[in-house]
Amino acid sequence: MGRPTITASSLLLLTVAALITLTNANLTPEILNSLVSLCEDIPEGGDAFQIEATDRDGDPLSYSISGLNAGFFTVDETTGMVTIKTRLDREARDSLVVTIEVSDGKNMAIKDLTIILLDANDNPPMFQASSYNVDIKENVTVGAILFTVTAIDPDTGPAGAEIYSIAEVAPIEGEKLFSISNRGGEVKLIQPLNYTSLSTFYQLKIIASDDGGGSCTMTEPLSSITYGFITVVDVPDLNPRFLSLPYSGSVEEGSIVGTTVLTVLALDQDTGVNDIMTYTIEAGSGEPVPFTISDGVISVSSEIDRETIGNSFKLTVKATEQKKNIYGEDAFATADVQISILDINDNPPKFYSCGSIECVAESQFRGEIQENSVGNLQINMTVKDLDQEGQIILEVHGEDKDAFAVNPTSTTSQSTVQLVVKDPQKLDFEDKEEMVVQVIAIDEEKPTMRSTATVTIKILDLNDNSPFFREDTYKLTVPEHSLVDTPVATITATDCDVMDKDKLTYRLLPQSIHKYFNVTENTGEVYVTNSTLIDREVSSLYSATLQARDTNNLIGTTVLEISLTDINDKPPKINPNSYNVFVEEGKEFRLQIEATDADDPESPNSKIVFAIVPTEYSDYFTIDTTTGVLTNSAELDREALEPAAMGKIELNITATDQGVPALMTSAAVTVNVVDVNDNKPIFTAVSYEFSVKEGVKGAVVGSVWARDLDQASDFNRISFTILEGSFGSFIIRTVANDTGYRGDITVDPDVELDYETERKEFNLQVEGMDLSGSRAEVEVKIKVLDVNDERPEFKPEGPLEVEENSEDTGSLGNFSAEDKDGTSSLVYQMESCECRCNGTYKPCDWMLVDGKGAVTINPEAKLDYEECDKVKVWAQVVDENTEVGENNSISAAEMVVDIVDVNDNAPEFLISDAVIVLVSETASKGSSVTQVTATDRDSGINKEIKFKVTEVKYEDTNSQIEDFRTIFEAVTTQQKDFYVGIIQPTEALDSSTKGKYLVNVTATDRGGLSAITELKIFIIDKSFKVEVRFGLPKAEVVASRDSITLALSAATKSAVYVTDIINDPGQFRALGDTLMMAYFVYPNGSALSEQDVNKKFTDPKNHDLLAQYNLENVGKVTVVQEPPNTLQFGLLGLLGGLVIVLIVLTTTLVCTRRSYRTKLKAAKAMKYTNMETTDNQRGGPVVPGTNKYTMEGANPVLNLNIDTVTDLGFDEESSNVERISVNSFDDGMSLHSENDRTMMVIQEEDEESINIEPLGAALAQRANRREAGSSEMGFTNPAFSVTDL
Fold first, then answer.
1. How many whole angstroms separate alpha carbon 1202 and alpha carbon 1240?
2. Tens digit of pLDDT for each residue in 670-686?
3. Which residue from 1189, 1137, 1166 is spatially nearest to 1244, judged by alpha carbons?
4. 811 sits in which H/E element
5. Could you say which of 149, 365, 575, 1144 is the most buried, measured as most Cβ atoms within 10 Å of its Cβ?
6. Cα–Cα distance between 606 and 664 in angstroms, integer?
7. Helices (H), ranges, 790-844
8. Residue 1244 and residue 557: Cα distance in Å, rounded?
9. d(Cα 881, Cα 888) in Å, to the nearest integer?
10. According to the 3-state scheme, what is the secondary structure of 600-641?
11. What is the pLDDT of residues 799-848, one digit of tens each?
């Protein structure tokens, strides 16, 4: 039998069956997302992104998100729409990685998705200092930089720009003086300062704002303020100035050296410098200058005599600053000083004799005058005082001064002096033939300064003297009843005239006196003429005039008083002969005893001596022996007398004269002592003390006793009163008894005493008063006795403090209670304990309370401030000795214990992406690279954190790590309750460096506790620089730089770093083209190549955004192919092998038809070429897959679909290394989609579709499978044609 034959048709059927079996297996869903960009300011609940996934089996899909960052999002399991759950913050972390899970119910696809957070303008620039204080000299150059302010904005791009401006200046006049660089923050001076005429202090309100915008919503700029304080420092540029001009002073002549005249004062007009002044005298109105100056004080330097230098003196004073001014010269000012020389009284007045020409000083003057004359005596005398307005007093002295007076008696400076006869009778030749007086000129101000002139006066004689007696009155005595012719006295007169000497005659007048007395005419002897008539008791004194007459009948007289001397012939007499007088006790007693004696009162015969005859009470009295005044020698006290005497005292008074022999008489005196209320009540004790129990109304307390010593019943009655201290609680009643009066004290019947009130003891002031109002007081102390009936009460206590983690077993503090009863015994009991944890109180066992009220820490508890920060303890107190009522407090007491934080927690870094991207060419010293955020669970200063870069390492592209210098620093700022460390370079970075920096940042708190985090800062090298070409002049591109950057960032969804803008150097480009050098970087560090950027630019969605700037292409485009799907290419490989086998088996069959089909294919290709053209077609139809333009020589093609524009000869098996992103961080992300390509596909007509062969069917199936399973591999670029390649 022959071997079975396998025909081509059979083999084809087997192959198709195998393929169908393979394709029926359930395939895993494919996740299309690998990178998305989100705005950080999307609100909670807002749409974030759509999870894009496909399943070839068409199964329904479910979606979920997992990973550390999944908490920020919520996903709809059915639709795959992801929304925001928790607000995003780019400044905390600029990218997130989440794991996307997509399931078709059988298989699950898992893929990490990188989410790039785009910046929103949500942070204002923050100044590095709250204020800036500088001191600036007033002569600083205009244009100088006074100080520089610095602000940092953690946002990026325009939103992170810092633009400075001065909002206001105080005072407002300072607004024209200062300016600020809007980018650099340098504050400059634009107009000159002046310490004197302008303000010495300025306050600048400075604003730092950003440009607004951001990668997301365009927002208004944000800003913050700081203040600059400029203090203007004065410099010496002005001359000094004298104050209080003009200057005038005065000084007395003769002032001692060093006497201060006046003080001048000059001040530096540069008040901020206030230099020291040096004073000098430059000139004077005369020489020598008798003045000097020191520190502005003008004083006397030599003797000053007004009579020599005049009445005034003028000085020129100069004030010079001690230091040179800013021009190197002396700064000075001058002023005139007018000094008046005050006259002092330093010259005595002097006498002069003046002629017709001049006056000569003289001290001796002469003159003459008749005796008894009146008028002026001319002596040619002048007096002068050289002092200014000197006042002169003139006096007459000497033996004969009473005869003359001086005229004038006072004068000013100069006057003629005359003597005036004051008493003409003194001018008596018989007495003096020559008289001498001294005229004294006295300085009125200084009486010690005087001059004396002697004046000799000759008296010219006249007969003009009368006789005169030596005495005007002569007192003579003679015993009464003397014999006749008894001489009484001889009295003679004198006459100064010589002719009357021994020729005088005497006469006794009046004539009536002659019956008693007479005088002898020639001798002047007076004698008795009648013995009987001269009786002293009748007349004791006789008066007569004795006359003397000279030969010229001039008379002189004198008076004679003749007294008769007594003899003792009359006894004393008391009138009346008895006295009955009344006197109040206690008062002074005085009684005049009247007694007379007829004898001569001037003789012992009438001298009366009084005396008291001794009796029982005579010692209480005394009598003046001479005057007879009877007074009490001791106090008269009615109570000291016997009550039976009824207050009467009997005395006997005697009166005796001193004559020889002595004569005496007597009289009775009765003194009635009248009782008065002169005794106040007297208490029997100094003080009284009683006690009484509380709560008993009307209780008897005790009694006080008092008596009054007055004898009258109206005066010794006593009544008692409580003056004070009772407070209405006690009353007193008065009771009389034999020994005095008693006051009974009781509790007021309406009052119930309470020991627990503030008054546990009463100090009563009790008064005893008689009817006249005399009073006595005594203190009565009443103690209230306690009865235990009160409940204890807590005293308020302040909060306690204890540090967390404390293991102190001692008392933190005490509950304190008091019981108003004195016998209490208090015991304390804890009721409850609560802790405040996270703002809410809950029961806890952290504290204990012992029986004495001490609050202690529970040894089994651990105090942790971060867990609970406050404890409240409630306790009750009980009185164990309570007798009546409740024994516990009304309510429990609360004690608050504050837990004091200690530094026991290290700082903690918040979750953030430690991967940072840095474009080295744009990174400059001081610019912000990234930031770290940390917090500390402690409070107060313990939570303050400071960041520091502690270590930097460099990892190259071969993963080799080496230590590196510290080229980064951390600047610490605070944002609300978080501390932010802004990482910035300390130097410019090398733009050619490739790799990453491993930066360790340490966060340290005040207590030295720290935490470390590592930042990976990836470097974007210059190979990713992209040239963006604009069809605009350079000036327009520069002017529109900010808006262009925003547009480019919006189109590429990346941050744009512009490094330069230049004119296009190409020779074949139109004039006016401009190149912008820039980097396009995703926040996660993925840099876009020129191809990536070009693809974004060619997206039709971005056309309107970019077309306004005449944006051109950026360069060649390399077709980027996605990584092959393993399962897809496995199936395609198997199918390819089977196709090869089929081709071999059918070779013979195909060969017979080849010639025909080749011509047919060429004809059809030409047909489609004529139908489909492009703008880049070069004159004639294009043959797909060839470099020919006509049908001649056209290559045959298979029955496949041809991409006439983008199929550049590469197939799926070719290497795609050169067509994917060279960035090592590109995690297979797709940068294109279905909308990113435009394809022109030529579909071959199948004229033999009715009789399709098996091979044709297989090939058609392969083509469809390739079209369905292959990802698009290229871009439509109209700028290039196939031939260009």
1. 8
2. 999 888 887 889 898 98
3. 1166
4. none
5. 149
6. 11
7. none
8. 195
9. 11
10. CCCCHHHCCEEEEECCCCHHHEEECCCCCEEEECCCCCHHHC
11. 988 888 888 888 888 998 888 777 788 889 998 999 999 889 999 999 99
Using CA atoms, how far apart are residues 329 and 531, in angstroms rounded to an integer?
123
- Confirm whether pTM is higher than 0.90: no
Helical ranges in 1031-1153 per DSSP H:
1034-1039, 1041-1052, 1090-1097, 1103-1107, 1126-1145, 1147-1151
User: Crossing angle for the helix pair 1126-1145 and 8-23, nearest 10 degrees?
Assistant: 170
Contact (CB, 8 A) for 1077 and 1059: yes
Whose CA is closest to 1010, among 941, 951, 936? Answer: 936
DSSP result, 989-1013: PPTT--EEEEEEEEEEETTS-EEEE
What is the reported pLDDT for 763?
A: 93
Mean pLDDT throughout 552-574?
Answer: 86
CB 231 within 8 A of CB 132: no
Q: How far apart are CA 1202 and CA 1164, in angstroms?
A: 13
Q: How far apart are CA 732 and CA 737, in angstroms?
A: 16
Provide the token pair at 281: 């005298």
Segment (H or E) for 744: strand 740-747
Q: Give the dihedral of Cα atoms 1242, 1247, 1252, 1253; nearest 10 deg.
A: -80
Q: Which two tokens stand for residue 824?
A: 């209490």
CA distances in angstroms from 49 to 39, 85, 93, 611, listed in the order given: 11, 13, 19, 144
Q: What percent of the chain has pLDDT over 90?
A: 29
Strands 854-857 vs 847-849: parallel, antiparallel or unpaired: antiparallel
Question: Distance between CA atoms of 1003 and 999, rounded to whole angstroms?
Answer: 13
Indicate if the pLDDT at residue 554 is higher than 90: no
For the chain, how long is the longest CA-to-CA vector?
242
Strand order of the sheet with strand 404-407? Answer: 359-361, 350-354, 376-384, 414-421, 404-407
CB-based contact 458:547 (threshold 8 Å): no
| Whole-number Å distance between alpha carbons of 535 and 606 | 16
Chain segment 1162-1177, per-residue pLDDT in tens: 555 545 444 444 343 4
Q: 3-class secondary structure for 429-478? A: CCCCCEEEEEEEEEECCCCCCEEEEEEEEEEECCCCCCCECCCCEEEEEE
